[in-house]
Amino acid sequence: MSSIKNIKTNVLGYPRIGKKRELKKACEAYWAGKINRNELENTARNLRRENWNLLQKAGIDLIPSNDFSYYDTTLDLTLTLGAIPSRYNSLKEDKLRLYFAMAHGEQNEQEDVIAMEMTKWFDTNYHYIVPEFVKDQEFSLFDTKVVDEFCEALELGIKTKPVILSPVSFLLLGKEKEDITGMQDGFHRLDLLDKVLPVYVELLKALEEKGAEWIQIDEPYLALDLDDEQRNAIQKAFGYIRENTRLKIIVATYFDGLKDNADLAVNLPVEALHIDLARCPEQLDSILNILPADKILSLGVVDGRNIWKNDLEKSIELVNKATGKLGADRVFVAGSCSFLHVPYDLALETKEQNLPAGIKRWMAFAAQKIEELAAIKALAGGETKEGFSHQEKTAEQDYAAGIQAYFAENQKDIADRKVSFLIHNPEVKARVAALTDKDSQRHSAFEVRQKIQHSELHLPLYPTTTIGSFPQIKEVRSWRSKFRKGEISAAEYNQLLKEETRKCIEWQEEIGLDVLVHGEFERNDMVEYFGEQLAGFAFTQNGWVQSYGSRCVKPPVIYGDVKRKQAMTVDWSTFAQSCTQLPMKGMLTGPVTILEWSFVRNDQPRSLTCKQIALAIRDEVCDLERHNIRIIQIDEPAIREGLPLRKSGWDEYLKWAVESFRISASGVEDKTQIHTHMCYSEFNDIIEHIAAMDADVITIECSRSQMELLNVFADFHYPNEIGPGVYDIHSARVPETQEMVDLLKKAERFIDKSKLWVNPDCGLKTRGWAETKASLIRMVEAAKELRNE
């Protein structure tokens, strides 16, 4: 049997949380002391084995390892390279304890350490743990996870392709921090490249010794704007690695095209280059024209960021163009990026009431994307077998017929989706077309509104509030489960939630919060809850993806034109307001966040879909105002996330993103105070656009960065009111009152106290009541202390 075509399939990474979120459940059980370390490690080992076996069975040629993580792969690399901040020194004897302390802090009788900072991974809703660097940073091979997992797969008979972040992207994704003396001395983290490269090489040599052949080195910064120093650093890093290892290297780029970095990328001393053709298909021609004759090109033709079926015909055209120029043995067929960003398996979706068959047939999750890779390889002429018996020929003919049937079904589904009546709503399209500038303008300027709102609301200096949700304890989740299974009636379910809401409001009054929330006990997820009440959305049972650590989300699917079917939050907000004389916030998710945290239709511009959502939220905002809700929060934590990686695309995106928010918020009177919330997003470089959103109050994450994010206000006079988060809700740690006072005093260096609010970093849904109560009591005490001063 011989092969005249040698196209290989390449997977950059695979989901790791488990089909039924086994890793999430195991980690949380371990943190709670309900299972031991061996049980946690066994769960992890089983998940890795399941992924490797699945990819091997599907015929994938380059199977990844080291794409697994208990929390975050960037944090894994930080530990591997020994870049451990000094505050964790006492924990180094226990690597797993150290690892989780770096991820979410640790507080007990012996230790009280805050977590490392967390922020968004490029333009995704995945969060990574930000490496911290000091001028005299030292690196050493502290952990061998990369090697251990390669050996683990090898014992199963599977030679994997280890995946690791490049040294340059690792440094650039980190931050310079003060050392224990409080000094930074003006160094740049790229100054550390010479120190970290030998440790990388030590790691790669260890892989060589164990028999590794290929390694994937991710260099996502090649899809961003680079300065000369960054370009030189990338050249230097790969030159050093090439001189010191015999491993075959794939340098992987994703999330955008190479553009002006194309020459740099194709001339790196590596065996293969991966490019993202889902985000930037137009780059193929230019790359083919300049690719050196000794390089392999990995084509990211299957979208790793969305759940729509691949158009096999278009992908095959791209593959054939590449093989025609390079030859089949110089082409890999791949996902555009890691499949971490999509759910596991569409076959797990069995409830048609959630995901109708007519929509499901347009979709593909990670398992289906693996099938698509195999089909593209076969349809592009992947292998032709010679010299086999008649029986083998019959099997080959059956296989070929199956592939052709698969292709025909794919093309039928692609064509049917374009014309489906499920997608198009002329009324919605007409309403968006009729929008004018007036629809995105408040009646008066902020200075006028502020005076009216202060007169209406009678809030003290340093007003205290929370971001929205309160802990959803086991009982609340069990009520929701019983209601969905029909075990309790809607009336019984609502009564239970009302009692929980009433208790939450009474407790907020008791501790002295100034602006209350109803706790959101009726909501499953801040996007899914609204999507369930909007036309144009569909939902999955098991479409879970990782957001950070053990936090998983189940993004809705926007398949058609979006319209509000009825009021979504009015009943709960008015009930909550009836329980108190204090101001009650109406809580909504903003149009950009609903867009960014959903799997979005790809048959029209995202801007058009966003404006459809904005009009639906506008209707809800106006209804809340009519029912005497005077403070309405429209959360937009994802507005920075949607920013294109290249600055050349920023203005266009920010224009429609800010306009969409303003459309949602501008239908109310001056006396109605509009809040918005943003978390774990570096927005210093778009602060003017944040101001242009014209929210009366913004609340932002600031505690993990120790108010560092507020440095932007030293140069930019932010006109409206702002609440910098004073404690990290992603950690069980309870901060001291003085700690929050100190953070607020830092904030006062940049924000006038007349405009300063006091609040946590984010919603409290995932926290326990004990730590929540203790933290909020201290937060209120901090505000009172500042008022007294």
Characterization of the model:
With 789 residues, the protein is an alpha/beta fold. 41% of the residues lie in helices and 12% in strands. The protein is built from 26 helices and 24 strands. The strands form 7 sheets. It has an 8-stranded parallel beta sheet. A 5-stranded parallel beta sheet has the order 19-21-22-23-24. Strands 15-18-20 form a 3-stranded mixed beta sheet. The longest helix has 30 residues, at 390-419. It starts with 7 loop residues before the first strand and ends with a helix. Mean pLDDT is 92; it is low at 384-391.
**What profile does the largest beta sheet have?**
8 strands, parallel
Approximately how much beta-strand content do the residues carry?
5-15%
Number of helices: 26
Strand tally, please?
Answer: 24
Report the uncertain regions. 384-391
Report the C-alpha radius of gyration, rounded.
27 Å
